[in-house]
From TrEMBL:
Domain of life: Bacteria
Protein name: TetR family transcriptional regulator
DNA-binding region: 41-60
Matching SUPFAM superfamilies: Homeodomain-like (SSF46689), Tetracyclin repressor-like, C-terminal domain (SSF48498)
A molecular function (GO) term: DNA-binding transcription factor activity
Residues covered by the HTH tetR-type domain: 19-78
Keyword Transcription: yes
Keyword annotations from UniProtKB, A to Z: DNA-binding, Transcription, Transcription regulation
Gene3D superfamilies, per the entry: Tetracycline Repressor, domain 2 (1.10.357.10)
Zinc is among the record's keywords: no
PANTHER family with a match to the protein in the record: HTH-TYPE TRANSCRIPTIONAL REGULATOR BETI, HTH-TYPE TRANSCRIPTIONAL REGULATOR RUTR
One Pfam family matching this protein: TetR_C_43
Length: 214
């Protein structure tokens, strides 16, 4: 008797509305994690996203899965912003400025405590995105230095730490309210990076690896 090998069926592609719901959940979760921390109730995230609780759990079986998706999406967008800035052929310092403001909008620093609790220290996706972003930011800064626009004593860690600190809204402060002053403060910081330097920086710039090992 001839046996018939069953044809493998491809998994159905998610519908457009299902993808939109997932994106809304991730966006709402990022906003609420930034505003209220990692313990915000998932039903509150569902309410802000405009979906039902079942939709949240259908996409993300637990809180850690949602946190991982939020962090990875933020890292991916930060890398994309750096790639776009590096690809620009215009003014090198203006490209750096655009990247800084775009990176600040992601509020990655507010998510850092959740990274430590939900990711393995050497998670491959996280490591790859982190290394790529550091390389790109270094290249953006090197181009601005070569153009004589960025002071030569500033390192990648100086930039990234300052952006992280300046873009993190106070606890309980909504992202929309923080937007009123975050970009203002960032621009003040960026103006201080322009060459020629008007002061001597104390100490030396740490590498990003130094910061991770601290």
């Amino acid at each position: 008797m001839q046996t018939v090998t069953p044809v493998a069926r491809k998994a159905p592609r998610p519908r457009a509305d299902a993808l939109r719901n997932r994106e809304r959940i991730v966006t709402a979760a990022r906003e609420m994690f930034v505003e209220f921390g990692p313990d915000v109730p998932l039903d509150e995230i569902a309410r802000r996203a405009g979906v039902g609780n079942a939709t949240v759990y259908r996409n993300f079986p637990d809180r850690d899965a949602l946190v991982r998706e939020v962090v990875c999406s933020v890292m991916d967008r930060t890398v994309a912003a750096a790639e776009l800035a590096l690809a620009e052929s215009g003014d090198a310092f203006e490209a750096l400025e655009r990247f800084v403001h775009a990176a600040a909008d992601e509020r990655l620093s507010a998510l850092c405590p959740m990274v430590q609790s939900t990711f393995d220290k050497h998670h491959p996706d996280l490591e790859a995105a982190r290394e790529r972003s550091e390389q790109l930011v270094g290249a953006i800064m090197d181009r601005a230095k070569a153009a004589g626009q960025l002071r030569s004593d500033v390192g990648v860690s100086d930039l990234m730490v300052a952006v992280a600190q300046l873009s993190r809204p106070p606890a309980g402060t909504g992202c929309s309210i923080a937007d009123r002053f975050v970009h203002r403060h960032l621009q003040l910081f960026l103006d201080g990076l322009r060459a020629p330097a008007r002061s001597v920086l104390p100490g030396t710039a740490l590498t990003m690896e130094d910061l991770r090992q601290a």
